[in-house]
């Protein structure tokens, strides 16, 4: 995944926290590419990150994912 190989350590910590609920990676973490027009979503209880397949460019995907990562302290939609 290009995002993982190009972002800072802080962004990686945010990704893991968004994905599983805290900054420590779990032994098993699942990734699903889904047919959806929504933003990336995480089911932290199931350690599953769901990435929509609708993105046409990497920059669009990165911007959406980074926007979602910005919600980790407050919860999505609670800012």
Quick structural summary:
The protein is an alpha+beta fold. It has helices at residues 2-6, 9-20, 58-69; strands at residues 30-34, 41-43, 48-52.
Would you spell out the secondary-structure blueprint of this structure?
Elements: H1 2-6, H2 9-20, E1 30-34, E2 41-43, E3 48-52, H3 58-69
Parallel strand pairs: 1-3
Antiparallel strand pairs: 2-3
Strand coverage percent: 15-25%
Number of E-state strands: 3
- Number of H/I helices: 3
Q: State the low-pLDDT regions, or none.
A: none
Description:
This protein is α+β, with helices and mostly antiparallel strands. Helix content is 37%, strand content 16%. The protein has 3 helices and 3 strands, in the order H-H-E-E-E-H. A 3-stranded mixed β-sheet has the order 1-3-2, covered by helices on one side. The longest helix is centred in the first third of the chain and has 12 residues, at 9-20. The N and C termini lie far apart (28 Å). The mean pLDDT is 90.
Keywords, separated by commas or semicolons:
alpha+beta, 3 helices, 3-stranded mixed beta sheet, globular, 79 residues, 16% strand
